[in-house]
Amino acid sequence: MAQQRLWHYLVLPVLLNAALAIATMVAAARFFREELASTIASAPVLGWIFLVVVTGLGGVVLFILLQPILSAVFSDRLAELVEKRIRGSAPAAPFFASTGRALVHGLLKLVFYGIALAVGLGLTALTGLGSLVGVGLGAIFLAYDGFDYPLSRRGVGFGGKWAYLLRHPGVTLGYGLGATLLYLVPLAVLVAPSFSAAGATITFLEIEGKGAARGAGAGGGTQEKEPEKPHKPIDISAT
Known about the structure:
This protein is mostly helical. It is 78% helix and 0% strand.
């Protein structure tokens, strides 16, 4: 990000994410304070400790649910710019059509998030394994969020995006767990969506390039390879 001078794509998202983080914590605190009013009155110390814990968890859950929608426009533009700088071009999608599709997919994704959260809480209550399941599901959803940008520019539907992740399970889990660790770094959550979008775009292009190379190799090598279009070199590791 620094080498390519893309920091200006992070400034406004950081401010918006900071405002969202404060708003979700305030909303969670108000909700749980009303729910735990009797507990706080009867056992103040225990009640306040419990309130702080559930407020933090509730605020984080709300933030994770809402942040991808808030950051989608900035992350999509950043992912498109990264692809252009690597390949020299990127598929273009009509603004209103892509925005409407993104909103529909975002709502469907929220439904999946809600189901996953309910499953995780249920397993925690019954078996104590809900946290592990929650981490795994969270990693998969973060992988979806990242790869959503390059796939959407190619007109892939909601089911097609999940099918792509299933075809590349190693990349999906590896990328998802890496993104999860990034989200766990204090304050990194404010820039994690942008970094994740850029990283997923680079990974997608690498997979696509390897697939094209295998296809060319399977062709028998009788046809001459067309020269690649020159483009500005980019240091992927630094990006």
